Amino acid sequence: MTGWFLKIPSWKGSPFIQMNARRKCHVSSLCFIMLWVLVLPNLWITCSGSIQKYVLPPGFSGSEMEYIDNSGIFLLSNGSVFGFGFITSGLSESPSYLLAVVHLGTTTVVWTANANSPVSHSDSFEFDKDGKAYLQSAGSTVWTANISGKGASMQLLDSGNLVVLGEDSSSPLWQSFSYPTNTLLSGQSFSDGMTLVSHSTGQNMTHTLQIKSGDMMLYAGFQNPQPYWSALQDNRLIFNKNGAIYSANLSSTSWSFYDKSGSLLSQLIIAQKGDANTTLAAVLGEDGSIAFYMLQSGNDKTNLPTPIPQDSCDTPTHCKPYSICSSGTGCQCPSALGSSPNCDPGLISPCKSKEAFQLAQLDSGVGYIGTSFTSPVPKTNITGCKNTCMGNCSCIAVFFDQKTGNCFIFDQIGSLQQKGGRGILHPHKMRLVHQKTMDICRRYLEHQCGSLTGSSRMQQTTSLTSLAKEDLDLYIWEHSQIAVALL
Q: EC number(s) (predicted)?
């Protein structure tokens, strides 16, 4: 056999090589251990920052980017019914985010901190070491919670209420339920001084819900806000007693209205039943109506058939301005504006125009919801009503009621209504009466008339009414079964 061979020392027989091998292995292990010692803290910081929490301590900071694996949510309620964090806004072409409370099962947004000021994925929510909560964007504060004291923790309740608690945790120093956006939830009280605001429409119009002057009303956000719904004029309300509305509380099945002393005035029944696993939500939509939803613990969201107002045509923005809204048939342009492009007469500010104007009469039976909530000018005839409008440069529409002589002028209007043959329905006064009272009334009628039917019943209405009123002191709201009586 031929060839070149190189004689080399054996691994086994060389103590030098064995020692060097062990030394290299030892050094490598040290390097490996040191590497992990250096890397692990960074891994812990990264991982711990993205873990969802049930309580936020002072010193917390979080952004959408840090919690992207949790869909931007960093705080959960105890039962994981609601979450608090960043959601996609959809208000701009580039990605932007809102800080919000979300019903996790249905992904329904129930509260937002920065509805009109979205932030980027790197902007952060801070619950700083001084117990203050705020949202920062590019070094400036976009939103801050008006906390009365030093917050010791922030929690999200299973009711959807985001709260900041002090050291004693006895009562919230701040809560989102006191600062609603466009949604109210069951268990949430809405009182005089609060405002519910809808998202802005394509025409940059918002709608608001407010309690003032003893009534709860919806307003269209014209330059001069116009009311278009009143709780006191809704004929679905069941009245307990007369009084000025100061607050309204949403339960799992109804909306109850109270005076300043906390006495029940009236109630609107929304659902026949509710349970602990559902949340009732009242949402003021872009169209100006309040819709009620039942949010289930799963992913079920049920739209309840109790809208406010009852008729979609009772909102001044259901159709375009000047268009006629007809229930069930949609929107149409009045014949007087048939030649105007898009049914728009082009009136922006008549006071600044040098053109001459004239009044065009609308179709028969056309009305406007604003006349039900606006004070008329002094009584006059139709000629005087027209002259009042023509003498006021800000007047763009005038409505005259032939029966009452009332004249209404407006500087802005929304969509009109086709009244047809319908008259104005005045709300029936209804009361909640204790079942015992009803039994007494029934026995009284049976004794007087022998039955509850026929003309005899109508003749005894006065006696029934007076007897029911005398016995109303037996009524106890919290522990009684309710019956409805038309008085």
A: 2.7.11.1
Strand partners, 227: 219
Coil, strand or helix: which one is 462?
Answer: helix
Predicted model pTM: 0.75
139 or 257, greater pLDDT: 257
Phi and psi torsions of 145, nearest 5°? -85, 130
Of residues 444 and 185, which shows the higher confidence score?
A: 185
Residue given tokens 């509260």 in the structure block: 111
Q: If you average pLDDT over residues 180-204, what whole number do you get?
A: 92
Give the span between the Cα atoms of 243 and 266, in whole angstroms. Answer: 9
If pLDDT is split at 50, 70 and 90, which confidence band does 355 have? confident
Is a pLDDT exceeding 60 seen at residue 106?
A: yes
Q: What is the CATH architecture of 183-310?
A: Orthogonal Prism (2.90)
d(CA 83, CA 103): 7
Domain 55-178 and domain 183-310, same fold? Reply is: yes
193 phi, psi to nearest 5 deg:
105, -20
Q: Which helix (H) or strand (E) holds 34?
A: helix 15-49
Domain parsing of the chain, residue ranges: 21-47, 55-178, 183-310, 324-418, 430-486
Q: Which of 209, 186, 213 is nearest to 197 (CA)?
A: 209
